[in-house]
Amino acid sequence: MAISVFPSKRGFFFTIIAMLIVSVLFVSFMPKSGVTLVHKIPSTESRINVANDFVETLKTSYLPMALRTSSYSALNSLSEYTKAYGSLFTDYDDLNTNFAEMMLNGSIFCRLGGQNAVMAVEDCIGSSETLMMGRDFTRRLRDIENASVSTLQLQTALNYSGFNAVLFQNNATGPFQVGVKITINFSVNAGLAWWNDTKDVEVIFSFEGIEDPLYSVKSQSDLGLLYTNVFNRTNITSWNITNTFLEIEWRKYRYEKNGSAFLTRFTSLDEASECCGIESLINPFAMDDAVVGNVERPYVDWCFFGTRCPGDQPGALWNISCITDTAQSPEKFYRFSLDTYHASTYNLTDFVYGAEPDPNAAQCNGMMQAVCGIDPDTPCI
Amino acid sequence: MAKRGQYFTIDAFVALLVVTTGLVLVLAVNSYTPSSGQPERLSQEFVNVLAQTKIKELNNFFVMQQVRNGNITDFDNTILQQAYEFKRYFDSFLVGCPPATGCHGYEPSVHTNMSAEFLASVTPSLVPKQYSFEIIIDGDSVHGRGEGQDTTDLLISSKRIVFGVVNKSVEFWGPVTVEVRVWQ
Question: How many structural domains are present in chain A?
Answer without folding.
Answer: 2
